[in-house]
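Reopening this one. Same input as before:
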Amino acid sequence: MCRSQIAEALAKHFASDRCEFYSAGTETKPRINQDAVRLVKELYEIDMEKNGQKTKLLSAGFHFYLFLIDYRKFHFIEAG
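Same output, byte for byte:
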């Protein structure tokens, strides 16, 4: 889940005026990935925990879903 948490933090930081971004999975954890928190803070000075980012479950109600399969491919699905 680390990559999607990083993507959420960066998307919110750079494009929150154009869209809402969420990272979600099929199960929640007690806290977001601490490696992701450290990396984003070191590279971009974004504090994911201070900004309220937490693990979330995938749910209905979105316009688009982007499923990251691995670093080489993803699936983009319009909700309908």
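So the earlier flakiness isn't reproducible anymore. For the record, The longest helix spans residues 2-15.
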